[in-house]
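Milestone 3.1: sequence recovery, worked example.
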């Protein structure tokens, strides 16, 4: 079978195709014949080495397809089931991938492989950020950065569905227009300090209840300055690089702020949490409260180009590799 792999960390050029033996599942594993593989920003961190992984390695941790083999002890799935997964092991950019059965979810008929690969990781992230990390309620002022991106588009729609007042930021007028079309109350094309100033103007000087910041280095300071006293700073990504080190006293000086740096893995660590999170995501998609924009498709062998486009801020919504 074909799989995209890396021998060393580096730019997109280190990703290459390999013909490898089709793996046999262990007792608690299923083998998924991938119909679509999700591309996520975290895959670029694995490639560059920002997040350390053992080399050589596959890439990618999200896919959707059909169970085509199952280990002797598998009880959650049977051959032919439509499933999706996004919590590893790394190596999902491949025609077939082994996944522990308690790390996969059954797909409802209404959720296509394409939608699943475009939304499982990003949508479960939006779900835990909005429902668990900080529980967004009607009337909350919520700031979402990179609002036209994969996670961002889902955050905007789900926060609106919960009754929040959403202030979106994006890197261009065209991206801001996408955020607006998804329901954002305000969509700013702003940089640096300008973001905080605009959020304060919009909120009569009070600030936001919560900021969801997946951009990191370039927005971190401004995000803290967007918050009202006792507001919640959720730093969940590093698209522009990791945020700078923080003096804890800063949180006091800026208004007794809360700061968290959450990760999906810790919010879906048990199979119960995984199933509940996925079910909630599929429900808002099926209701139409969250619409998953058709993803941009790349052939499996074009994974390097997908990474180039994602890192160059050329993309909106999700990217999917088709084996
Ligand atoms: P996106 O589709 O959101 O792509 C990243 C976006 O970040 C870009 O489109 C761009 O939007 C913005 N950006 C701002 N500055 C830069 C820069 N210097 N280089 C590249 N992009 C930049 O990606 P994903 O939806 O896959 O992920 C979004 C973020 O969420 C990532 O940081 C990712 O790591 C994080 N994440 C965290 C999870 C967690 O559990 N902690 C789980 C899933 C994702 P614009 O041009 O509009 O600024």
């Amino acid at each position: 079978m074909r799989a995209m792999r890396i021998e060393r960390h580096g730019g997109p050029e280190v990703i290459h195709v390999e013909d490898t033996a089709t793996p046999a599942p262990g007792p608690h594993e299923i083998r998924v014949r991938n119909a679509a593989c999700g591309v996520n920003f975290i895959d670029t961190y694995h490639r560059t080495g920002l997040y350390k992984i053992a080399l050589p390695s596959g890439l990618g941790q999200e896919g959707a397809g059909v169970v085509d083999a199952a280990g002797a002890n598998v009880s959650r799935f049977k051959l032919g089931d439509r499933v999706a997964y996004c919590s590893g092991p790394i190596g999902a950019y491949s025609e077939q991938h082994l996944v522990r059965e308690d790390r996969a979810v059954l797909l409802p008929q209404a959720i296509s492989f394409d939608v699943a690969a475009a939304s499982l990781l990003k949508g479960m992230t939006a779900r835990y950020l909005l429902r668990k990390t900080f529980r967004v309620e009607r009337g909350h002022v919520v700031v979402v950065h990179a609002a036209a991106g994969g996670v961002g588009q889902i955050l905007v729609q789900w926060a609106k569905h919960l009754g929040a007042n959403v202030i979106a930021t994006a890197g261009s007028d065209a991206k801001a227009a996408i955020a607006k079309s998804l329901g954002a109350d305000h969509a700013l094309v702003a940089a640096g300090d300008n973001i905080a100033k605009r959020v304060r103007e919009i909120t009569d000087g009070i600030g936001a209840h919560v900021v969801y910041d997946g951009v990191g280095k370039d927005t971190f300071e401004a995000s803290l300055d967007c918050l009202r006293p006792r507001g919640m700073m959720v730093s969940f990504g590093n698209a522009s690089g990791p945020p700078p080190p923080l003096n804890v006293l800063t949180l006091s000086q800026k208004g007794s702020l809360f700061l968290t740096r959450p990760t999906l893995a810790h919010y879906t660590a048990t199979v119960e949490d995984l199933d509940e999170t996925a079910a909630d995501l599929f429900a808002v998609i099926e209701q139409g409260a969250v619409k998953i924009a058709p993803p941009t498709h790349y052939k499996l062998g074009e994974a390097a180009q997908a990474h180039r486009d994602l890192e160059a801020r050329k993309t909106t919504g999700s990217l999917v590799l088709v084996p």
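The chain has two domains: 2-120+271-322, 138-261. Residues 113-133 form the longest helix (21 residues).
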